[in-house]
Amino acid sequence: MAKPAPLLQGTLDLIVLELLRSEPTNGYDLAQRIQAVSRDVLQVNAGSLYPALYRLEERGLVKAAWKETDTGRRAKVYSLTAAGRKALESQRAEWARFAGALSHILKRA
């Protein structure tokens, strides 16, 4: 198996917002989804993920609530707020613009 790729600076918030768009989830499951959706290319450790979640919560882009899991334990579940949806739209557009520009540069070679 190939070594996981490092996250580009500033992309974790976008990834978190995008994955929370589909459904609320706890931090552990979110880390697993990042790895699964990226086909094991991206792996996020707790030392990076939880500070990002707390930062997004402080900015009002996500909200957290304690809920009981299927196994009976309590977990903090994060969901996207209306402000988070708006920020996601903006960040997606910014990323598409950046990716398009990078693609043009790489095609020159």
SSE layout and pairing:
Blueprint: H1 11-22, E1 25-26, H2 27-37, H3 46-58, E2 62-68, E3 74-80, H4 82-107
Antiparallel strand pairs: 1-3, 2-3
Helix pairs in contact: 1-4
How many helix segments?
4
Separation of termini? 29 Å
Runs in which pLDDT lies below 50 for 5 or more consecutive residues are: none
Number of spatially distinct domains: 1
For the record, the CATH class is Mainly Alpha
Report the oligomer: single chain
- Computed over alpha carbons, the radius of gyration is 15 Å
Content-based structural category:
alpha+beta
In terms of DSSP E residues, the strand content is: 5-15%
CATH topology assignment: Arc Repressor Mutant, subunit A
CATH architecture: Orthogonal Bundle
The H-and-E topology, N to C, reads as: HEHHEEH
Shape: globular
Q: What order do the strands of the largest sheet run in, or round the barrel if closed?
A: 1-3-2
**Overall pLDDT:** 93
CATH superfamily: Winged helix-like DNA-binding domain superfamily/Winged helix DNA-binding domain
- Proportion in helices: 55-70%
The tally of strands reads 3
Quickly list its features.
109 residues, 3 strands, 4 helices, globular, Arc Repressor Mutant, subunit A, alpha+beta
